Amino acid sequence: MNDPTTFLHAMRFVGAGLAAIGVAGAGAGIGIVVGGAVQAMARNPDFTPTVQTNMILGIAFAEAVAIYALAIALIILFV
Question: Domain containing 71 — which CATH number?
C-alpha cells in the first residue's frame, strides 16, 4: 500500500476517467443541438438549409471536444 509506483499507476486511471468525462458532455451537447435544430426546422421549414448547416457545424465542434478528451485520456493511460 505504501508503494509510490502503485499509487501513481492508480492515479493514472483516475485521471484518465476524469478526462473521459468530456466525452459524455459532448454526447449531451450533440443531443441538445440536434433537438433544438429539429424543433427549429419543424417550426419554420423555410429556414431548414440554414438551420441544418449551423447544426452540422455545432455537431462538428462538439465532436472535436470529445475527440480531444479521448486523446487526453489515452495519453494519460499510455504515456
Answer: 1.20.20.10
Please tell me what DSSP assigns to residue 11: H
Please give the grid coordinates belonging to residue 21. Answer: 468525462
Asked, for residue 40, whether it belongs to a domain, the answer is yes
Q: Strand runs (DSSP E) across 1-79, as ranges? A: none
CA–CA separation, 59 and 28 (whole Å):
11
> In tens digits, what is the pLDDT along the chain, a chain of 79 residues?
678 889 888 999 999 999 888 888 888 989 999 999 999 999 999 999 999 999 999 999 999 999 999 999 999 999 8
- The total number of structural domains that make up the chain: 1
Contact 77, 10 (CB under 8 A): no
Name the pTM for this structure.
0.78
Nearest Cα residue to 28 out of 73, 72, 69: 69
